[in-house]
Amino acid sequence: MNRFLLARLAIMPLLMLAILPSFSAPNAHAADGERCFPETGQCIGGRFRQYWEQNGGLAVFGFPIGPAIQERNRDTGKVYLTQWFQRNRFELHPENKAPYDVLLGRLGEDWRQQRDVDWRQEGRAPQQTGCVYFDQTGHNVCDQANGIGFKSYWQTHGLEFDGRRGVSYEESLALFGLPLTEPRMETNSSGDRVVT
């Protein structure tokens, strides 16, 4: 037998072992109906997956950063199925009809509570021309330049509730909530100074 043929035959099983894993299921860790992300090693499924996909997915909420678990809500003291994402927290409220059966966390309020900072102590701001004013909190959402900034972003982004083109006030409010402060300069986690 030819030496080259023998060498090929000897290498063939090794090649098969190397290639075989690429033909397996795309994500062996995903249960039925789940979508898993190798970037974080986390999965989303059920109503959370549906809500995530219907309302902007990765661009709006980011990757899941933990599994869906039972967690106590700070405001009510009740326990809900909860899953954390890079940019929000989902809570499943089966007592509500869709789309309000998944409620988003109040991250700004949570962050301030963790630091023992009460936004109410900062006082109310006067209503500014050209801004969206929220009487409930006494704060404005304004653009930082003509047509560029928080107001423009707020008015063009939101959750999809009514199936109509464009973003309604209610859909923006559902995604972002109420402003708790006026814009300010802060240092982000990368050390950059940014307007928040």
Short summary:
The protein contains 6 helices and 12 strands. With 196 residues, it is α+β, with helices and mostly antiparallel strands.
Please name the defining characteristics of this protein.
196 residues; alpha+beta; 4-stranded antiparallel beta sheet; two-stranded antiparallel ribbon; 12 strands
Topology (elements, then pairings):
Elements: H1 3-19, E1 35-37, E2 42-44, H2 46-54, H3 57-61, E3 69-72, E4 79-84, E5 89-92, E6 102-104, H4 107-114, E7 132-134, E8 139-141, E9 143-145, E10 148-149, H5 150-156, H6 169-176, E11 185-187, E12 193-195
Antiparallel strand pairs: 1-2, 3-4, 4-5, 5-6, 7-8, 9-10, 11-12
Describe the structure.
The structure is a single chain. The protein is of the alpha+beta class. It folds into two domains: 84 residues, no CATH class; 78 residues, no CATH class. It is built from six helices and twelve strands. The chain has a four-stranded antiparallel sheet, covered by helices on one side. 12% of the residues are buried. The N terminus is likely disordered.
Strand order of the largest sheet: 3-4-5-6
Secondary-structure element string: HEEHHEEEEHEEEEHHEE
Distance between the ends = 75 Å
Largest sheet: 4 strands, antiparallel
User: How many distinct domains?
Assistant: 2
List how many beta strands DSSP finds: 12
Assign the structural class, choosing from mainly alpha, mainly beta, alpha/beta, alpha+beta, or little secondary structure. Answer: alpha+beta
List low-confidence stretches. 1-28
State the helix count.
6
Shape descriptor? globular
Strand % is 15-25%
